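Weekly structure sync - notes
Attendees: PM, LS, DV (DV joined late)
Agenda: review two folding runs queued last week.

Item 1: First target. Sequence and structure tokens pasted below for the record.
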Amino acid sequence: MRPALVAAVLVFVLVCVLACVLLAERRAGAPARAGALGGARLRAGPAPSPNLVVDTLNLTHWLRGGAEPLTPAAIVGAIDATAPALKRRYTGRLMYVLKDRESQFDDDSARDLYRQAAERNGVYVSVASRYADPPAESERPAAPEHSSKGRDDFYMSILAARYRCAVLTADKLRDFERFRATVPPFRVVEFAYWRRLPAQDYVRPSSTAYAKMRKPVTIHPSAYFSHGP
């Protein structure tokens, strides 16, 4: 091959290599430049979690305007009304959390309603229930505080930390810092849409396992729904 032809081929190859390098650099640099404001670059945040925890009692009150006492039927009605829309937005684990009534323990008929709601809507329904004879907790205050009834709020915080997601609630969770000191031990019955028998969890809020747990990020129900009558 003639020297002139060899030189031309080498120049052509070199030009092609340089063009490829410049194109790659331009593609790599485009997002950073597009995200620059005033000389500061915006970092792309983590993708929104596909999971969501729902403060079921709070959501039910909010949808109904807080006018009437809640019943298991009303709670299930709120799950039925909101699950389809939330599942379109959250494709992972949709978890409705509530607690048994302070005036009485939930009976089998109430729990069967929750089980059916979980199956019907393809969600998880967890009930934070009191012990009839709770384990002794020497550090509990003699006079129970309002925060001592927040077993459902505490369990929502556990799930939000476990699944790295937000909680849908209109509550500010102002009592969060007092939960570990005031909420007595409780047990959780979880109904899953794919499981016939419920699972159980046992929670002692004062455990050091929860010492570093942070208040979860919350989303107000108005982000997705409108008030009822």
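Item 2: Second target, run right after the first with the same settings.
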Amino acid sequence: MFYDEMNNQPLPNWMTPYLVWGIPSVEILVSVALMYGKTRKLGLYASVLLMAIFSVYVSLAVFNVFERTPCSCGGVIKELNWTQHLIFNPFFLIAAFWGLSLIKTPKKNLLT
């Protein structure tokens, strides 16, 4: 089903196998990175990047850049249309940036 949904997107079909395996793999890696203190900052940066890429894709769909509008199918928020996705996404970008602002960078010890 996910494979068929990816084939329905306005991307070349040769990309489908890479997207079907790549997108969930990257999302799992980012989730794992967010769970551990040493990799949390990297995970937050990766979250920002993924959400920014997805927001650009949604913007292209909303502004009819593609020849046809792809389905907005999939996942927990499948009931949202493309415009609602575009409104929804900034909240997650803000949350990731907020998380980055909360991570304290260690102060360098001037004596070492």
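Discussion on item 2: The chain has one domain: 2-102.
Action: LS to circulate a short write-up before next sync.
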